[in-house]
Amino acid sequence: MPKQMILAAHFPGVNNQTVWSDPESGSQIDFASFVRLARTAERGKFDFFFLAEGLRLREQRGRIYDLDVVGRPDSLTLLAALASVTTHLGLAGTMNATFREPYELARQLATLDHLSDGRAGWNVVTSSNAFTGENFRRGGFLDYPLRYERAAEFVRVARRLWDSWPVDAVLGDRATGRFVRHPDPGAFAHHGEQFDIAGHFTVPPSPQGHPVIIQAGDSAEGREFAAADADVVFSRHGTLESGRAFYADVKSRLARYGRTPEELKIIPGVTFVLGDTDADAQERAQYIRRQQVSPQTAILLLEQVWNRDLSGHDPDGPLPAEDPDVSDSSIADGRTRMYADPVATARKWRALAQEKGLGIRDLIIEVTGRQSFVGTPARVAEQMDHFVQADAADGFILVPHLTPGGLDDFVDRVVPLLQGRGVFRTEYTSRTLRGHLGLGPARVAAEPAVVG
Amino acid sequence: MPHPPLHLAAALDGAGWHPAAWRLAGTAPEALWSASYWANLVAEAERGLLDFVTIEDSLDLQSSRPDGPDGRTDQVRGRLDAVLLAARIAPLTRHIGLIPTTSTTHTEPFHVSTAIATLDHVSSGRAGWRPRISARRSETGHFGRRDLPELRPDLFAEPAYVELVGDLFTEAADVVEVVRRLWDSWQDDAVIRDLPSGRFVDRDRLHYIDFRGRWFSVKGPSIVPRPPQGQPVVATLAHSSVPYAFAAASADVVFVTPPDADAAEAIVTEVRAAEDTVGRICEPLKVLADLVVLLDEDASAAWRRRDRLDGLHGAEPVFDAPVFAGTADELADLLGHWRRAGLDGFRLRPAVLPDDLAAISRTLVPALRDRGLFRAAYPGGTLRDLLGLTRPANRYAVGTPT
């Protein structure tokens, strides 16, 4: 049997991926939009539905960024509501570990796992961002080097809390009047660098034991954290070569944690454009790219590399002559810096623009685009299958460009072909997200719940 | 003199409010962590046309002691996050309001605001929020970020304790203020999708809340567009003057616990005075009295059930609200009598779930309707509509941007 593919659906949110100007673009906040996309994913037998997180509205030049879709629901609350309108689909979201406390988040995730009968997933991220911190009691207190340390300890504490109730803790014996078997269910203590807490957890073991732990991040620390603690890694490696290199590297790290390669799934985020012919699809892809990068958006994306106000530049004109500002201040707040070396990026872009005779907007379309799979349904199915069989990934998180109907074509036209190739399920064979992903039962915490 | 109909709510917690409830409940104990258990309860309340249900919560294990765990094995221990429970139920119901409880002492106001706003979005305007302070060290120990003294009833009158509780309520008022400002931080028409300018949102209709207080500061705006109700309903439980003042300053609905009709009148007077003292400018608080209820076909059967529960518990349990045991007709008469004290309605705490909740929706509600005290159908609309609260104007939308 060929290797089976994982498929997840991302609800397109806050970025210029979403083409809100399209007449088919619906509400990004109405519950009906989320129901539609989740039910489409479930109809396609997808492994899970995924929500990103934002904790502050992005700014550029000191003002709220107003060109992209903005405004989204709280992930946990929305996922709990989606558990009512789906039956098999995994429900995963990003929840920042910097501006939350382990006791509260572990409790919420265990609750979501109960309320979804074992379909909860958590994408662990941290932030060192003082800008985002301005919305929180905690503020922006975390230095960059502490990010993974806090994330790792956060997950350790969460696992300890999830394991704190013995599985047989609830006795419920009406005759003898014993509701719980022991007088202190959920007792725990953790005394660490980041967290010093003790007491009792309130949630009995959830169906998955531990919700599925997802991690994104490509640094050495991120890869090591994933190898030690994650069930799923989101990668950004969209080409076959870089995908295979990342895959081999991360999977090779598992052994030192006593884990097998099957225990960590690697799924890049990818986009797709379908057409009746490959030429149609290419034409649609070009059209979508132009919708995604309006003249105004082109200038603002350019500013994020140059780190300067470029509002005076013509979107169809040449790139700025001066070099990017590489000082610590950033023109764009609340957005991850995408380019490690802006000056080198600028040089490369200038050369490319000159070589191809591109103005700013066309250059931005050329260099920021990442349409992973473009073609007929048959070609897309073939390419995705090849990607997985070649160990460049275990599956994909699909990022449609339309809300909420952006997954319809994929589910109707590509999924049957993947099923026909025998690389994707035709029916759910499990009820839990761990089951869909082919993960074993949750690892029991390495340490007892109560430690010194 | 004709009265507006009563507001009627049910308070849901575990297997019911009597500590021995699980011994008599018709539900398997492990069902308390299942969505279907809660969905069935709320469906039952909606069958009775109740205004809303509240869902209790705290960030520690249930206990019969005022401070910390009690080590008892004979009572329900363990519960789920109330906000997520409410969200899970929202798509399964259509009319009833959903009011979960959160702590104001340990949570991030930003997260609470976005969660309740989201609950309002997924329920099409049926969300409420019950903020409560956490004074127990057992909750504090789960966060490790502040110290509190031991909570002992013999110390309640000590100045240091009075100051501590006062501070926790002042902080709670800050939390509610931040949550409310964040709900208003998007004007209703902030999303413009303006093709010519390429702008999805009009940034002039988004607002920094710039809250700075003694305990925290929050910049804003929210990440969630303004919820359907504008401001979801804020409800709080109050037993004495400090929480009355908190309710008057911060809430839309207050639950009070008078032992009888005379006390109810005195409490309503005190609540109205607190509204004057804090200079409340919005609509007056809706005052609902809490009662723990055991209902049966005849009064002696209700009392026998109460005796049986007390016997299983080993003693007569101490409640913070009065207990009613009797028939639905007797309770309907009592509620009709009490409301003359100026109460807007009642939040009933079923002693045993689902039995006493089913008795409320199937026998008490018809008895109230027979007396002209309760509605015959849901009128449609949001929870604010149901409670007779108007949709508040947005505090930031004074000047209409061009």
TrEMBL record, chain A:
Keyword Oxidoreductase belongs to the record: yes
Name of a matching Pfam family: Bac_luciferase
UniProt keyword annotations, A-Z: Flavoprotein, FMN, Monooxygenase, Oxidoreductase
Residues binding FMN: T94, Y148, S219
Regions crossing the membrane: none
Positions of region (Disordered): 311-332
CDD domains in alphabetical order: Nitrilotriacetate_monoxgenase (cd01095)
Residue ranges constituting the Luciferase-like domain according to the UniProt record: 24-390
GO molecular function annotation: monooxygenase activity; oxidoreductase activity, acting on paired donors, with incorporation or reduction of molecular oxygen
Family of the protein in this entry: Belongs to the NtaA/SnaA/DszA monooxygenase family.
Listed name of the protein: FMN-dependent oxidoreductase (Nitrilotriacetate monooxygenase family)
Naturally occurring in which organism (per UniProt): Plantactinospora soyae
Automatic annotation (TrEMBL), chain B:
Species of provenance: Plantactinospora soyae
Phylogenetic placement of the source organism: Bacteria, Bacillati, Actinomycetota, Actinomycetes, Micromonosporales
Protein name: Alkanesulfonate monooxygenase SsuD/methylene tetrahydromethanopterin reductase-like flavin-dependent oxidoreductase (Luciferase family)
InterPro entries assigned: Diverse_substr_monoxygenases (IPR051260), Luciferase-like_dom (IPR011251), Luciferase-like_sf (IPR036661), NTA_MOA (IPR016215)
One Pfam family cited in the UniProt record for this chain: Bac_luciferase
Signal peptide: none
Residue positions binding FMN: D57, T101, S240
Domain Luciferase-like: 34-307
GO molecular function annotation: monooxygenase activity; oxidoreductase activity, acting on paired donors, with incorporation or reduction of molecular oxygen
Similarity comment text for this entry: Belongs to the NtaA/SnaA/DszA monooxygenase family.
Domain of life: Bacteria
Keywords: Flavoprotein, FMN, Monooxygenase, Oxidoreductase
